[in-house]
Amino acid sequence: MLPPDHPSRLAMAAEVHARPPQPLTTPGRATYVAVLIDLRDRDRERAHIAALCEAYQVPPPALDATQYGAQLGKVRFKWERHGEFSGFTMMAPGLSPQAFTEPAASLMPSGWLAGLPGTTIVAAHAEVIRDAATPPDAAELSTLFGGNVSVGGEIGGGAGLAYTDFRIQPDGFVRFVVHNRGFTERQAGQTLQRLFEIEAYRMMALLALPIARHLGPRIGAIEASLAELTARIAAEGGKDEALLHELTRLAAEIESCLSSSQFRFDACRAYHELVTTRIGELRETRLPGMQTIEEFMARRLTPAVATCATAAQRLRGLSDRVAKASALLSTRVDIARERQNQALLESMDRRAKLQLRLQQTVEGLSVAAIVYYVAGLLGYLAKAGKAGGLALQPDLIVGLSIPVAALAVMLALRRARRRMHEPESPKPSAPN
To answer: Which listed residue, 32, 60, 185, 210, has the most CB atoms within 10 A of its CB?
Structure first.
């Protein structure tokens, strides 16, 4: 009943349903691990997951899959492949005997997480408990988070509360605590997914911060060099080509900085937008005496993102300024070269005029020499005729022939000079 499907129709339709939240009973616990994996290790990652599935006798993910979920014993396992990292979520019912002593990851086969290829960027434990009559006080929260100050608030329009300190505990994991007031199992899983994604995208955004700090002194040195070069350009010291070479070197250095950092800075901006979006989806409400997650990120994450954005903006500004200075200096070099070419042409014109005068002088001498030889030949002919009995006067003949020969030679030279200056006539085209 329809025309043929677009090749990407099914994939685009399925994209909005990608990465659905996993249901979690209350009380429950979850562990999330995000690993930076090189593209060359993707096959190893898939093989590692397939070995886990084989151990539990469940079907492995498809070869082209970017997400996968399965029930592995007591653990609900979920794998998601993102552009730069892979996320692994493990959920299990029930709580630890003591807070975070037996997380969901402890129910996985020993050494499986440690065997994942890549490097850990995020590791987090979470516990979902039934809400008490009154919210936990500061002392209770401090015990849960190792004595650190926690942040959080009501979420989901009052359907629950979320607490964390965003600090890595001695076991290497960040901790989240969610009090369930009215979440369904799917809403509880979705809430945890949002909290885990906030932490994952926060860390991915901060990957650009060390690059920005490393480039800071280098950018400052380039700015100082550019300011010095610009001052030297304004001074017109006469070494424009040398200055142009230095500007070219600065431009190459700036492009090197841009090529090595631009992707990371753009990714920082994109990840920060995702963090902001996920925080908005929590629908936080402030609790008395406690900082919300949104406020925490605004005070701690936003300045770091601004630092990265400033470094990127400074690099792009430097690139534009160097391009403008190079264009200005190139124009001045071109004008100087045109002046040199004009002076050279004037010099060549003067030389051509001198050569013309010399040529005219030589032509005059040539006329005299030709007339001399013609008159001499006529004199010899007259003498020969007189010796043969003709009534000739050789001297008179020679004298009369001189002006005639001179006029003839001058007309011949004039005709030759005129033919040299005439444009060549186009050659007739061959008939078809």
So the answer is: 32
Neighbour tally for 302: CB within 10 Å: 13
Three-point CA angle 133, 135, 140, nearest 5°: 120
- Short-list 117, 138, 96, CA closest to 40: 117
Let me know whether 167 and 212 are in one domain.
no
Q: Are residues 166 and 132 in the same domain?
A: yes
What's the angle, vertex CA 70, arms to CA 87 and CA 84, rounded to 5? 20
Q: Could you tell me if 177 and 295 lie in one domain?
A: no
Question: In Å, how far from its chain's centre is CA 176?
Answer: 37
Q: In what order do the strands lie in the sheet with 85-93?
A: 67-72, 75-81, 85-93, 28-36, 119-130, 174-180, 160-164, 151-155
R_g (Cα) of the chain, nearest Å:
46
Q: Quick check: bond before 27 cis, omega within 30?
A: yes
Of 308, 342, 376, the last residue of a domain is 342
- For 189-244, how does the pLDDT look when each residue is reduced to its tens digit (9 = 90+)? 999 999 999 999 999 999 999 999 999 999 999 899 888 888 887 776 657 778 88
What residues make up the domain containing 409? 354-419
* Number of domains within the chain: 3
User: Do the Cβ atoms of 51 and 63 come closer than 8 Å?
Assistant: no
Specify whether 331 is located in the same domain as 358.
no
Indicate whether 219 and 87 sit together in one domain: no
End-to-end CA gap in the chain: 61
Determine, yes or no, domain membership for 198.
no
Same domain as 26, residue 117: yes
pLDDT, mean over the chain = 87
**What's the rounded Cα separation, in Å, for the pair 78 and 95?**
19
- The answer to whether the CB of 33 falls within 8 A of the CB of 120 is yes
Identify whether residues 132 and 232 lie together within a single domain.
Answer: no
Do 234 and 135 fall within a single domain?
Answer: no
pLDDT digit string, tens, across residues 341-371:
888 888 888 888 888 777 767 766 777 778 7
Contacts of 163 (CB under 8 A, 6+ apart): 136, 141, 144, 145, 150, 151, 152, 176, 177, 178, 179
Residue 348 falls within a domain, yes or no?
A: no
**Beta strands at 174-180 and 160-164: parallel, antiparallel or unpaired:** antiparallel
Which one is predicted more confidently, 53 or 379? 53
Work out the number of other CB atoms within 10 angstroms of the CB of residue 328.
14
